[in-house]
Specification:
single chain; alpha+beta; Beta Polymerase, domain 2; 3 domains; 7-stranded antiparallel beta sheet; 5-stranded mixed barrel; 17 strands; transferase; Polymerase_NTP_transf_dom; nucleotidyltransferase activity
Amino acid sequence: MGRGHFFDRDVLVSRDGSIYVVIGNAHPPGYVLAYLKYVRGEGPWRGYRRVLKQYGVKNLISSPQTMSLEPCYDVTFPILPVSQLESHLLPEEGFLKLLSRAADRQGEALMELALSLGTKELGVTGSLLTGTYHMDSDVDVLVYGCRRAIQVMEEFKGFQEDVEWISQTARTYGLSIGDAKALYDVRRRGKVKGVGYSVGFVDDRPHKYCERTCRKLGPREAVVEVEGWCDALFYPASAQVIRGVEGKVPSKVLSYEGVFSPLLFGRRKLKVVGMSMDCEGEDVLVLGDREVTGYVKEV
């Protein structure tokens, strides 16, 4: 099978055995945008310990790894030089291997998810892909491509709700329980057979790095009506602005905080606080900037 490019949520193992997770589908020559997730050490992950204990941009930029200011986007990303890369683990291949030997509770949960989602264009990431999972690990499934992403969102009903996710997200992002609950979607996170699961979506096309340049203009707040489909499910999530209600109207909302993605999918009226950016004439309101983390809520 194999492929010669890096997709969002692929897993990389460096020469010193550290484990990284790829960010997005666009990567500069010579290195990959990826965050450090596990290093060798004591812990439940079979000889590894977790470095990034909580998600979110603010936690990510404090990760003990090499960071690079990407001038095209005027933002800082964690990176892994290709020269330090030992192996590239593909979620699609990992999924097929695990499906053929579903012998433990994670394997059984994966089988149940596959029966509901269908097996085409699926992958598995996280500790299941690396083989370092433990009895309480989640099953992180990936769905590839726009057609399959929309199909899953329209047809998959999810399993049991994961109520712990709501309180944890509220703590991590400084949100009220009500605002965190509005971000929850059982199709994307829940529990099956007592095992936590997540369903992520990945564009199946490589993206051109530095396709255009952006510069920061400053913080902005706006109330807008947006419409987002599969681009709202991929990383970074984006939705077109259909109508402005209040404040200066951007043409697009773009989120580097994956947690806000559910509110960008479909057609909604949102209050958005973030960083205003000029991307070669396009006015973009960005969530997840290190200077202005921002937030979005339905109104």
